[in-house]
Amino acid sequence: MQSQRFLFVAILACFLVTIKSTPLSDISDSDESTSVDEKTQKRPDDDSEFDGFPFREDDDSLQDSSREMSVQDHNWDVLIFTQQWPVTTCYHWREENPDQECSLPQKKEFWTIHGIWPTKLHQMGPNFCNNSANFDPSKLNPIEDRLETFWPDLKGMDSTEWLWKHEWQKHGTCAMLVEELDNELKYFEQGLTWREEYIMSRILDASDIHPDSNNTVAAINNAIVKALGKNPSIHCLYDGKHGISYLSEIRICFSKSLELIDCDGIKQGDAVPVGVPGGTIITNCHIGSLVHYPSLVPPLQRKSHWKLPLVNVYKLLQFLMWFTL
Ligand SMILES: *[C@@H]1O[C@H](CO)[C@@H](O)[C@H](O)[C@H]1NC(C)=O
Ligand SMILES: *[C@@H]1O[C@H](CO)[C@@H](O)[C@H](O)[C@H]1NC(C)=O
């Protein structure tokens, strides 16, 4: 009797130890993360499955080879004004890492500003033109509310200042070359002015292109050309896992005197002029397939938790078998 009770206590103790040494969270974490991390671990050079992610040169990556250019020629020809579709930005951001927060704008059908990027024709940059022109957030106080609305940092709740700082240091300091943009407040105000004037959702709506639809790049391009009379540059993120191109950014171009011009001749990541019947489209989107203009960030495809209890029952059985044999 005594020894049986001892045996029981021993079994219980061993069981608890086993449970402890294989924490439940490990099981669930590894189950969940394999689907997401697998690819990244296998291809450490590639930062995501969105292999259309083309904006390394001109978006917010801080390690930047073009920084070296900053001592050289800071002249430029064209201002690229970029609006982004927040749903696609957030989807991509979250696919890179499901733990990353993304704050979508409150309003529906609301394109937001990414930046104003001075650029030479047929070249990237210049970037980071003036190291003494420090970013001073207080200079933006008069327009901060509007910036929060129209030029938000989607990637994180509290980092709005970070996006503005980056855009200013990398692009604003180069835009300073023209008087209309020669300080922080002017640079950001210009973005707001253009955002009010060129409302991308309306431009697309006017050609019956609404969120939650699939369209050819040609149709999107036509909609913009119809509304503006100038050629834009149209950017997609390609989700290789599901084989879907997502509409990501639409860029329009301005001269040094801030007049709307064709984007012809700008060099933008992997966007190139593509010949189509009736003209040329500057884009990185797959020209032959439909581009999805999503209305919602697709839900995370987490593996369900049903495995968890089974795994543990199995472990317990295994343990008991080992113990009793
Ligand atoms: C760089 O920025 C500083 C501070 O705003 C300004 O005084 C200076 O004139 C700028 N230099 C050039 C070359 O634009
Ligand atoms: C658009 O295409 C995607 C991907 O093929 C598909 O899942 C979706 O249902 C399509 N949406 C519409 C409105 O046709």
From TrEMBL:
Keywords for the protein's UniProt record, in alphabetical order: Disulfide bond, Endonuclease, Endoplasmic reticulum, Glycoprotein, Hydrolase, Lyase, Lysosome, Nuclease, Secreted, Signal
Pfam families, sorted: Ribonuclease_T2 (PF00445)
Origin superkingdom: Eukaryota
UniProt xrefs under InterPro entries: Ribonuclease_T2_eukaryotic (IPR033697), RNase_T2-like (IPR001568), RNase_T2-like_sf (IPR036430), RNase_T2_His_AS_2 (IPR033130)
Annotated signal sequence range: 1-21
UniProt-listed GO biological process terms: mating; RNA catabolic process
GO cellular component: endoplasmic reticulum lumen; extracellular space; lysosome
Compartments where located: Endoplasmic reticulum lumen; Lysosome; Secreted
Residue segments, region Disordered: 25-67
Catalytic reaction(s) noted: a guanylyl-uridine-RNA = a 3'-end 2',3'-cyclophospho-GMP-RNA + a 5'-end dephospho-uridine-RNA; an adenylyl-uridine-RNA = a 3'-end 2',3'-cyclophospho-AMP-RNA + a 5'-end dephospho-uridine-RNA
Keyword Protein biosynthesis (UniProt): no
Principal location: endoplasmic reticulum
Annotated CDD domains: RNase_T2_euk
Gene Ontology molecular function, alphabetical: hydrolase activity; ribonuclease T2 activity; RNA binding
Residues of the active site: H114, E167, H171
Composition-biased stretches (Basic and acidic residues): 36-45
Family affiliation: Belongs to the RNase T2 family.
Name this protein carries in UniProt: DmRNase-66B protein
Natural source organism: Drosophila melanogaster (Fruit fly)
Organism lineage: Eukaryota, Metazoa, Ecdysozoa, Arthropoda, Hexapoda
Gene: RNaseX25
